[in-house]
TrEMBL record:
Pfam families found in the cross-reference section: Crystall
Keyword Nuclease included in the entry's annotation: no
Boundaries of every Beta/gamma crystallin 'Greek key' domain copy: 390-466
Coiled coil: none
Keywords from the named record: Repeat
SUPFAM superfamilies assigned: gamma-Crystallin-like, Growth factor receptor domain
Family, similarity comment: Belongs to the beta/gamma-crystallin family.
Protein name: Beta/gamma crystallin 'Greek key' domain-containing protein
Amino acid sequence: MRLPTMNHGLSETLFYQLKNAQMDVLLARVDDKSENCNFWQSFASSWTELDSNKLGADGWEVTGGLAHSTQCGPVGIFGGLEKMMRGAVVSKLLKFKPHYKLKIKVLWAKLDSWDNEAAQIKIDGKLVWERRFQWFEGYFGKICGCPVFEWKTMFARTEVDVDHTGEQAKFEFTSTLDEVGNESVGMRDLYIFYAACADNCAECTGPKDSDCKKCANNWALVGGKCQALPNFVLLEQSFLEDKFTGINGWVLTGNKAGKTVSECNGKSMVGGFDIMGIGAKATKTFDIPPHKRLRLQSTIYKIDSWDGEFMIVKVDGTEVWKTSWNLQTGGANICGQGVWWDGFTSIDEIFNHQAPKAEIIYTSTLDQDAIDESWGFRDFKLWYEPKEACAIFYSECDFKGASFEFCSKSPNFQSDNIPPQIRSIKIPPQGRVTLYENTDYNGKKVTYTTDQTCIQNFDFSLIQMSGHIEGGWIEVEQ
């Protein structure tokens, strides 16, 4: 018996199957959770056009398949029959603002003779979602795919939340299909969201200030919150680019085969897999202007089979940072042999230091070859907190007699213990001292930028008359 037909030329049954498929597509495009408006921020979307002729790759790379779209019933899909079958992987590397969680929403199209194979989503090489399908799952009518009526087509809405930190993430959409020609996969309506860290936070575990684990530049984690450090000056920064080849004056010892740079998950690092293993060190000595404290920031990578060994950062022989890693540290195979989990961590240490030079050493207690366990680092920044500009004034030549020190731009001549005359001055490094005739910074003045061992006379009428600087004004600058 022939089924009655609708005015669009389709059987009534097939028409309703197409309507069901279209409803699945429409549902996948509706953002039906209020939480998405509360803290999720929209980041990227792809494959949203209904017409396959308008649906392109949108920057996604396809390996093992073809970066083409096909029409599947009422909508276009990226992939589909003879486009994405066995071994096809759709991937893209995306850069994010500081965040602690990612959300992925996508509509899968399962076509034809799947027999318990799985559609999969991976982030940074780690499987974060998987669903298995059967050949008989889907709509009654033949929507698209091979001309075998029993092999069904099915749209499946997917939404997955993933804990994630870092500046970038590599997304992969793939499957475990093992045949060519009679089973394939497609996707559409991809939306990616992220949950942002608090302001001035570079790495976090949640949205609150107290959830921050690493602060942005010129901010430091103090008392569980990011606080401004306006007094710190950036001395050097290196290895911030995604890709680099030089090591900017660092000296590597114990590095395997003389290699210096490797790549992990799309980023270069100093050292790394099969380079920095047992006995390896990375060292550099810095000349630093007069200072009170140092701030050291870096990203350090743990690669492969660590089993309780320590990663250590030293400054002038003293440990300023140390941590222990094991086989479970990391949670993803992003570099190395691909057998053990790898990971990375950010360090941000502030410590007292006054010496004019600082020797910084990265090292570890690894006891095996770099092919088995290794480490590397990148994103290096070294800051210093300058000493306050202080000048020392003496009542006698050659820095003798009574003395007093000024470290501000406005000394109090009424309350400070000032000797009756000035005969020598110690000038702060990279600083200057200016003596003014009047307390309002007007009148005659004289400026010194180097130490004065014996001052005999100022061309100030006030000083000539009084023999000392009472009523004069001193400004110390740096």
